[in-house]
Amino acid sequence: MNQTIPYRQEGVISCQQLTLQRDYETVLGGISLDIPRGAVVGLVGRNGAGKSTLLRCLVGLTAPTTGTALLLGCPSLELTETVRASLGYVAQMPDLFEWMSVYEHLKAIGRAYPAWNEKRCLILAARLNLPLGRAVRKLSGGDQQKLAVVLALAHDPEVLILDEPVASLDPMTRRDFMRALFIGHDLTDDLPGSDVEPTILISSHLLSDLERVVSHVAFLRNGRLQLFDTWDAMLEHLRLVPNDTSGVSASALICRNGAQSVIDTRCAPHCVNLGHALSLDELFVELNS
Amino acid sequence: MNFDITPASPTPIYRQIVEQVRRLISSGQLRPGDDLPSVRNVALQHAINPMTVSKAYSMLETEGILTRRRGVGMVISDSMPTHQDKLALLRPALMAATQITRQLNIDDVEAHAVFQSCLKEWTKNEPNDPV
Fold it and tell me: Does B51 touch chain A if contact means CB atoms closer than 8 Å?
C-alpha cells in the first residue's frame, strides 16, 4: 500500500502530516498524501470524515494547524498566479454570480484565465445541457452545480479538485460529467499520449460513478487516511475473508469487523484465492464499520 | 464493435478489455487487420477513464496481439505467434531441464512435479501490470 511517506514529495497534489484542530476536535489527523500526475483520485468517506476540509486545505482556502500542502510543488497557502491559472476547484456550495446569465458568467470568469477557451467552454456547457441564456439565480441546484463544473474545466486546468461535484445531478448527467472530465485530453491512437494529463481529485459518495474513472482511491475516516492506493491494486490484492482464516499476519490485515476481515494478499499470498474481491461499495462499508 | 464493461466488477476494467479482445480473436470475431475502436471512443461510450483503455491496449500491444498503425489506431496484428511457435520457444528451456534431470538421476515423475510446482509458484507471484 502506498502509505509510506516519501522523503521528497514528487506528486502534483501532496500533503505531509496535515492536521487541523478545531475547538479541541481533530478534524484532520496527520494526513500525508502524494498524488502523481495524471491520477484520478476518488476521495471517499462518511459525512464528517473531513473530506471537504482536506480539499480546502489542499487548495489553500483553509490553513491547517500543522503540516504542509502543496499543489504543483507550490505551497497551497501561497499559490503563484501560474499555479492558480492551472487549477480548477469546485466547492460543495458553489459561489456564483446570481444576477448574470450563464453565458455572461462563463465569459466573466473566462477573462481571469489566460488559457480559457470559449469554444471548449461552450462545448462543455452543451454536453451538460446548460441553458446559456438563463439567469444564474433561476437555475436549479443541479444546473448551478453544472455551471460550477464548467467554470472549473473551461480553462483546461492541470489540477482539478472537486468537492461532491455531482451530488445534485441525475445519473445521465453524472455520466456526461465523467466524460467531460476527459475532453481535450484525448489520447489519440497514433500518438503516445498528451503531455497535459490533468490530475484530478474528486470527493463523492457516488461510488459507482467513481469506479468507472478512478486510478486511485483514498479512504478517509474521522480525519485520518485509512487507505490510499491504485484502484487496480485494491481490486487485485484486497480480499474479504472470514476472521478465522489462518496465517494472516498483522501486516496483511487492513480491517476486521464482526465475522470478516479485509486483507492484503501481497502480505498473505496464500490467501489470494480465498474470499472475494470487493467492489468500491463493499470496501467502503468494511472500512467504515 | 462494442466492449461489454462492468465497472462494478471485481475484475479491473483494463483487464476486462484485455480478456475480451483475446476472446474475440480466439472466436474469430476479430481477425488480423481489423481495427479496434479508438481509446477516445471506448472511453466516451462507457464514461470511463481513457487511461484505462490505453493501458489495456498497450498491454495487448506488448503481447504482440495489437499493432499501432499511424492514422488508424490499434489493429489486430497480422503475425501473431501461433501456438506451435510458442511451444517451439519452450523446448530449449525444457531440454536444458531434461539434461539436468538425467545427469542427477532424478525420477521422471518427480521432475514433472517440480515443473508443476514452479508453474503454480509463478502464477501466485506474477508481476502485475507492465507500466
Answer: yes
For residue A228, pLDDT beyond 50 = yes
Q: Is A50 left (phi over 0), alpha (psi -120 to 50) or beta?
A: left
The residue among B2, B109, B131, B1 whose CA lies nearest residue B55 is B131
User: Longest Cα pair distance anywhere in chain A, in angstroms?
Assistant: 65
What is chain A's Cα-based Rg? Answer: 20
The pTM of this model reads 0.80
Inform me whether the C-beta atom of residue A194 falls under 8 Å from chain B C-beta atoms: no
Q: Strands B66-69, B73-76: parallel, antiparallel or unpaired by DSSP?
A: antiparallel
Question: Tens digit of pLDDT for each residue in A59-101?
Answer: 999 999 999 999 999 999 999 999 999 999 998 877 888 889 9
CB proximity list for A226: less than 8 A, separation 6 or greater: A219, A220, A255, A287
Assess whether pLDDT exceeds 50 at residue A167. Answer: yes
In chain A, residues with a C-beta closer than 8 Å to the C-beta of B12 are: 231-232, 235-236
> What's the angle, vertex CA B89, arms to CA B85 and CA B90, rounded to 5?
120
| Per-residue pLDDT, B53 | 94
Q: How far is B43 from chain A (nearest CA, A)?
A: 8
Chain B environment of A188 (Cβ under 8 Å): 38-40
